[in-house]
Amino acid sequence: MNDLFLYLIVAAVVFFFILIISFFKRYKRCPSDRVLVVYGKVGKGTGTTHRSAKCIHGGAAFIWPVIQDYAFLDLTPISIEINLTNALSKQNIRVDVPSRFTVGISTEPGIMDNAAERLLGLRQDDISNLAKDIIFGQLRLVVATMEIEEINSNRDLFLAAVAGNVEAELKKIGLKLINVNVTDINDESGYIEALGKEAAAKAINDAKKSVAEKNRDGSIGEAEAFKTQRVQVSKADAEAVEGENNAKIVVANSNATRREKEAEAERIAVAAEKISQARALEEAYVAEQKAEMSRSERERATQMADIIIPAEIDKQKVEISAEAIAEQTRRHAKGDADAIFVKMQAEAKGIYEILSKQAEGFDKLVKASGSDPKNAVMMMIADKLPDIVKTQVEAIKNLKIDKITVWDTMGSGKDGKSPTTANFLSGMLGSIPPFEELFKMAGLELPDYLKGKTIPKPEDVEIISDNTTSTDQTSK
Question: Which of 110, 250, 439, 445 is deepest in the core (most CB within 10 A)?
Fold first, then answer.
């Protein structure tokens, strides 16, 4: 008894320790680079709805056995390369915008719930592909709302628009936009390149103009210096060698030679400046010509897009409408065919039931006649005899004879003895189908007790007189 009590105490202690260890294992801590998602029965949300999951970042939670479970969302940033090509700008010019986006799971409370609902269990590649599809669509939308000059010159505005649109869409699936880097912007028509050449040509012309102005100021200063020097020298010479005429002549000749060389140098400088200005104008004209050609190509592409694309859209609308009408016609035809099939099936079933009942009735009639088919047929004839007589009477019932005029003489019949009136009445009575002939046509034999009735003979007909007009008015 004591041993049993000891075993129970040891078992209770072991169970208690196992329970404590299990509880410790169910207490989960969330690392800083992950989001702990607890799902299952996690409490009620707004109103009467239940929360689908509870997200924890930078903390810990106890996971209840059976009713709860957990998973982690990785916060590692994902770098996505977006090579957007042939995006249509506001000016209807196709541009290429290669860029790189960095995204990651958001740690904001509401957005973490979106990530838990839509991204839990997905791999990094699947999340990257999903974000890439969203970024492609929003980047095309931003390019379509801006002109090329804005995209090329004001990169900050372009990046702000891209970040605003893309981040708003990424938040719906629980992602956050970390960084946007646009490497370069190109267009297929060369419009951006033409803008760059135009700016470069303008900068070169401004620089050449500044150099020419500085050269001009230097020449003027040099001339002023020479002038001052010459005045002072002349004044000093005049004071020093006032009486020395020969020296003056030498000085005068020297000055003349100097002025000649200075004029030549000035001429060369002016000519070089004009040549430089002409070359600058020529390069500017070439750049303007290329810009005009690019502008004409852009106008042509715009007109093609305004004419061809609407025509293609109208064509697709007509094709879709025709396919819809054809599909509707096919469905109506199928419905009519099904209705006809059901109707024919019901009619066939009704005919089958009628014939089955008739066969059962014929079988019972033969059994009632002692299993003799001939007696059964006679019973059917006896049953239908009033209808046959009625049909025979109906043959002449509606025959209306308003007036019959007969001029008759004795011996004018076919046999030379009987009158024509007797022959007429005999033929009229003979036109009524006799019972015996009707039964023979049906393959049956009329009973003997029905064969005694015959058609009246011609001599039984009363003749009024020879060479006498007989008038008989007969109604129905």
Answer: 439
Half-sphere exposure of 196 (CA within 13 A, CB side): 8
- pTM (predicted TM-score): 0.38
Beta bridge partners of 78: 103
Question: At a CB cut-off of 8 Å and minimum separation 6, what does 115 contact?
Answer: 35, 55, 73, 105, 106, 173, 174, 175
Average pLDDT over residues 120-145: 88
Which structure tokens are listed for 290? 């290329």
Grouping H, G, I as helix, E, B as strand and the rest as coil, residue 455 is coil
For the chain, report the end-to-end CA distance as a whole number of angstroms.
127
Mean pLDDT of 288-301: 85
Q: Is 190 helix (H, G, I), strand (E, B) or coil?
A: coil
81, 135 Cβ separation under 8 angstroms? no
For 334-374, the DSSP string reads HHHHHHHHHHHHHHHHHHHHHHHHHHHHHHHHHHHTTS-HH
Contact 118, 169 (CB under 8 A): no
| Cβ proximity of 272 and 200 under 8 Å | no
**Length of the chain, in residues:** 476
Chain position carrying tokens 């490497």: 183
